[in-house]
Amino acid sequence: MSSRMGARLTLSLRTYRWIAYAALATLVLIVLSGAGVRLTGSGLGCPSWPDCSGTFLPELSSHVWIEYGNRLFSTVVGLACVAAGVGAFRVRPRRPDLLWPAGVLAGGVVAQGLLGGLTVALDLSWPVVIAHYLLSMTLLLAGAVLVWRVRGAAGEGVSDRWLTLLTRALVVYGGVVIAAGTFATAAGPHAGGAGTGDVVERLDAFGVHTLDRLIKVHGHMAAVMGFAALVVWGLAYWRGSRGTLLRALSAVCLLLAAQGIVGLVQYYNALPAEVVWIHASLPAVLWVALVWSWLAAAPAPARQPTPPAAQPEPALVR
User: Fold this and answer.
1) Confidence category of residue 46, pLDDT binned at 50, 70, 90
2) Fewest beta carbons less than 10 Å away: which of 79, 183, 199, 214?
3) CA-based nearest residue to 171, from 75, 258, 295
4) Helix count (H) and strand count (E) of the chain?
5) Alpha carbon distance 28, 266 (integer Å)
6) Which structural domain range is residue 146 located in?
7) First vs last Cα of the chain: how many Å apart?
């Protein structure tokens, strides 16, 4: 009976692949949703957690439902990530390489829920908000790795050592640039409490010049990243890469160009909320493309030397 039950609870890799896709897709969407909560000033629309002002059926108010709707969607994300974590142990034939990214998804999404509650309890304190966002990037990393592996490690491998090193350096630097952007946002005017009349403490390390300085530092870092991405793309093309790596690097270059345009528009138009929402959401997609580039830049496996063909034995001469 137990063996029959165990057989029913197993998953084929094809079925599990859709669970991994769902986890990654919802993780990207929750970043867009969370940014929308902040940019509409609805961050404290529900001042308590996990309920909303003592009820799970809050009043019909736009700011309340924007924040509460994000919480409800977080439940969908949690279910997808936990399903990915549990399902990885039920895939047959067994795939040990799926366990660690799936485990990060399951454990990380629980931590993300608790951190979200702490964010509300601490009135959108900017260090906690930054931690909340960076944990989302960590979950996206695990989700991208998981999808890559269930797809069968779609990369061809890179035989050029310099191309591998430069691609991976670009990915690491990209992570630093995204993290730096969170500090610029923490100093900005969109703290998440405007819609409900709540005053939220902002990052104020350099007094009245904090926002301008952080925007310029972040902007210069992003510009360097854009030029570096073009150099790495050019090297990949010149060295004959036409597969997954070139496509991933192309996506990185296009997303950086779009992000740069959006960044300039928001800067010269006094940071309108709608444009800032796009600028805060695009890094989720950019980060997935960067992680994909890292994975596609894996060194090609060394070719095993072909054993010499067996020589026929000479015929005996009589």
Assistant:
1) confident
2) 199
3) 295
4) 9, 0
5) 22
6) 7-153
7) 71
Cα 275 from chain centroid (whole Å): 20
Q: For residue 1, tell me if it sits in a domain.
A: no
**3-31 burial: b if 16+ Cβ within 10 Å, else e:** eeeeeeeebebeebbebbbbbbebbbebb
Q: Is residue 283, in this structure, part of any structural domain at all?
A: yes
Are 69 and 205 part of one and the same domain?
Answer: no
* Beta-carbon contacts of residue 229 (< 8 Å; ≥ 6 apart): 170, 249, 252, 253, 256
Q: What domain count does the chain have?
A: 2
Residues 144 and 159 placed together within one structural domain of the fold: no
Q: How far apart are CA 149 and CA 268, in angstroms?
A: 42
Same domain flag for 288 and 161:
yes
Per-residue pLDDT reduced to its tens digit, 200-254: 888 888 888 999 999 999 999 999 999 999 999 999 999 888 889 999 999 999 9
Cis peptide before 127 (omega within 30 of 0): no
Q: Provide the residue count of the chain.
A: 318
Among residues 113, 98, 176, which one has the least CA distance to residue 143? Answer: 98
The first and second tokens of residue 314, run together, are: 């000479």
Exposed / middle / buried, residue 221 (Cβ in 10 Å: 0-12, 13-18, 19+): middle
Mind giving me the DSSP string for 33-47? HHHHHHHTT-TTSS-
Q: For the chain, give the percent of residues with pLDDT over 70.
A: 89
- pLDDT tens digits, 166-187: 999 999 999 999 999 999 999 9
Residue 243 CA: distances (Å) to CA of 11, 33, 171, 223, 236: 30, 33, 18, 26, 10
